[in-house]
Amino acid sequence: MRILLAFGRTYPARTALMLISLFLAGLAEGVGLTTLLPLLSVALGDETHSEFSLEVIAILQMFGLAPTVVTMITVMVLGMIVSSALVLLGNRQVGYTVAHVATDLRVALIRALLGSRWEYYLRQPTGALANSVATEAFRASTAYEHAANALALFIQAMVYVVIALFVSWQAAVLSLILGVFLLLALQRLVKTSRHAGKSQTRLMRELLAHLTDTLGSVKPLKAMAREDIADSLLRHRADELNHAMEREVMSREALRALQGPMLATLAAGGLYAGLVVLKLPLSSVMVLIFLVVRILSLLHKAQQRYQRVASQESAYWALQKAIETAQADAEPGGGKRAPSLQDAIVFERVSFSYGDRPILDALDLTIPVGAFTSLVGPSGAGKTTLLDLLCVLLAPQSGSIRVDGVPLEELDRQRWRRLIGYVPQETLLLHDSILANVTLGDPALTVADAERALRQAGAWEFVEKSPEGMQTVVGERGGKLSGGQRQRIVIARALAHRPRLLILDEATSALDPESEAAICQTLKQLTPAITVVAVSHRPALIEVADQVWRLQEGRLVRIKGPRETCRRFGERAPIGPEGGAPTA
């Protein structure tokens, strides 16, 4: 029951109130049940009362209550009412905690992921993260609910045990030993559920990770008639998950089916032992049989709940491990200085590598504020890595990056990033309105901000002509729009919060030449109010740029811009006619 301890530390006040309520509920029920034996003695006309009955009668008389049938029934009913009220109070705390567990775990995971290093995030399958947020958080809260209910049943059973020991400790101990032995015999089924639950957690993660990747590639799969391959892989994982669920259900139902015969056997054995072996009064035997059967029934129910905990709690530990791993790989705090962007961004002998593969090697680069700078080069040359360094998603392994003379690591990371507008190569649009895609739900951004950004991106003309204007839904991944329209909305999103630096990573690579040329002219018009840094292979972005650098084998060569500032590791780079690219 480690999960109860874990949640007890997270929600101490409510857990303590739950435990106190359940304990008092059991105590109240026990007080009510103490009148059962003398009541049966009177009803059955026993000539002699057991020692326990006499003690109960003496306690009633001590409080000025006559040991009549009405009095004893009243005490019993009041005990049950008080017990039910306290159980309701305890279960209310359980319900409140269950309602918050899933939400709190989801929020903790999302915060940990968003606060982690970029390299960590890249290693995580998107489908596995979605599974953690949706399925595992729900299963974790369900595990807590079953654990709390199992504890409540156990407390209630212990109250009955105490009463049974007062009636006849010999018969009670013998019955309990047999009952515990049978419970232990069924523990194998609980272990089967635990293993099946762990398998479900692992297989669900793998299935959703693969499903997410497949759905992201469904168009080319269908175009090549290869969806059957994806279908067979998904079906194989689904079959494994189904097998694990079958094992859990079978063990749960087997445990439930075996409890009936066991309770009947113990009841018969207890009746024989009380009447024949111990020669107890009939009233004592009846009460004892009721208590023993009740105890074992409660313990069996507790074992059923515990079995559900065993099958579900693996989701909690997997989710907790994901949170702790992300927190352990959190981004460093960064500096405290407020950023400015008045002069230039300067890379000074910056180097970076992925493992043993060098990407940037003592790179020097100056990005003047207000200028349009383009970076070109073959795939894998390190252009995107350079942009990631600029966004502080990565950190240089040597050298430094300075903004207006201040090292980037000394700047407040979040305030620096708020100066950046980022346009990725993929036009990632939500299945929502144009307005929602521009503002991303940021409450600080108004409709006027969205309109301004759309105008800056050259998108207002087609948005204004849309059936519902900015409330027009763009469809799944923007499928109702053309490529150029999607790209302009993504650019508007990057401009909505009034950035000082606009970064474009192959932002026009999927556009036709006409659309690309139009967008490039739009981007050029943003300068000098906004500094633009663009990565591209396309000529249109090179033509509108104020300076163009080629990145290859970790080295930068200026192919467009003032000759006097051209550097290649301290040397003048070759420049073609009229400042163009060098001829082959």
From TrEMBL:
The chain crosses the membrane at residues 69-89, 147-166, 172-190, 280-299. Keywords: ATP-binding, Cell membrane, Hydrolase, Membrane, Nucleotide-binding, Transmembrane, Transmembrane helix, Transport. It is found in: Cell membrane. One of its GO terms (cellular component) is plasma membrane. InterPro entries: AAA+_ATPase, ABC1_TM_dom, ABC1_TM_sf, ABC_transporter-like_ATP-bd, ABC_transporter-like_CS, P-loop_NTPase, Type_1_exporter. One of its GO terms (molecular function) is ABC-type transporter activity. Its main location: membrane. Residues 345-578 form the ABC transporter domain. Coiled coil: none annotated. Residues 16-311 form the ABC transmembrane type-1 domain. It is a multi-pass membrane protein. This is p-loop containing nucleoside triphosphate hydrolase. It comes from Azotobacter chroococcum NCIMB 8003.
